[in-house]
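Weekly puzzle thread! Below is a chain. First person to post its structure in token form gets bragging rights.
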Amino acid sequence: MYYKKVLMILITLVSGCALFPQRVHTLYTPPSDTKNAAKVRFVGNPYYFSLSQNTSEKSRGDELILDHWPNFMTSFIKDAGFVKPPKYNNIYADGYFETYLIPEKETQIFYGLNCHIKMKFIPKSKALYQFRANTTDKSGYCVMYATEIVYDKENNAYIEKNIKGLEK
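Winning reply:
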């Protein structure tokens, strides 16, 4: 009897979470029409970001922007040619991922490394959004910086503005 209990505990420890039902994640598929689409950039380690958009056809669940395997320990860059303010070029060294969003649809951004952060917003057509998670902030908290990058004609420069209508 003792050996059966030890064997069950050993099997549970060795198998980890494999015994429990796992939620199947799908990869995010950007819209095919990019002319009027919103743009989004995930800065930092993009493997831990996911997003979902509620569309009229269906409600998409959490969709990973990148598959976590096989190379999740290296930095990753997917550059779609979106504008990057020169002032902030150093934050892109750890990797980033750029893609398109369906505009005017509720969108949820999720980050999950050492902490969990969710934010909801409705992207505008042709707007550029940037999400950057920081788990080493001096405040001791996990923080996600969510900004819209806009062109400031007066100063002839791109600037970051807080996203209006952001819901946590």
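Puzzle host: Confirmed. Bonus trivia for everyone else. The chain has one helix and eleven strands.
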